[in-house]
User: What shape does this take?
Amino acid sequence: MERTVNNKAWFLVLPVLVLVAFSAIIPLMTVVNYSVQDTFGNNQFFWAGLDWFQDVLESDRFWDALGRNLIFSAIILAIEIPLGIYIALNMPRKGWGVPVCLVLMALPLLIPWNVVGTIWQVFGRVDIGLLGRTLASMGIDYNYVQDPVDAWLTIIVMDVWHWTSLVVLLCYAGLVSIPDAYYQAARIDGASRWSVFRFIQLPKMGRVLLIAVLLRFMDSFMIYTEPFVVTGGGPGNETTFLSIDLVKMAIGQFDVGPAAAMSLVYFLIVLSLSWVFYTVMTNQGQETGK
Assistant: This one.
């Protein structure tokens, strides 16, 4: 007996797809147009070809910012993914503690990005900030405005505080979906805590971990608001990531052509690295499931 497929639901989704496609394609085409043209003002453009792309790829400024982005994303993933898994494993599965923990985990995610930056900007100030004054009273020379190491530590701790909850909630959702029969079988076999985690919990969290890694990588690699509010890309250019450098070039210097070329290169890098992450983790998940 043939199964009939009802595709009427697509008519409900189609307006949204058209709106999203329209709002995404038009700006993208505008950026592509600017990336191959140059202007002397007065809204007069002339063809520049791939010159802007060549300038971007040969620029030390671009590669330095890209290196800072890669280092920051690697540090964030190395901290937030294991920490999120650990917290999710130790959260209660039943009782009144469940809603309390979920609410506490969700609170940092509700704070807007610019507010997070403002909070940590004030929090870390040496003159009035709680963190800055406390470290100063302990004899620790901390100043995120002048010291590059302090600036990096502040941004990393700020991001961990803000976004680890996302990893926790995703991992917790994967853990609570595991049937109790798996744990009962593990207890009968005398499996250790590590064995339960390695062969039951970790494989069952594979999909949500894939989502968590992709979301945290893309967000950390494209981070802008928080470090811009806290350090403005300083001291010097030590925390100037690609997103901050791109805004400075497009708005501060009004170099529309190079900024458009850089944004397209930036987009392709994010897309390529996300595809690599997805492919590698999906293949590992399939091998684990065998």
User: Anything to note?
Assistant: The first strand starts at residue 37 and ends at 39. Residues 63-289 form a domain with the MetI-like fold fold (CATH 1.10.3720.10).
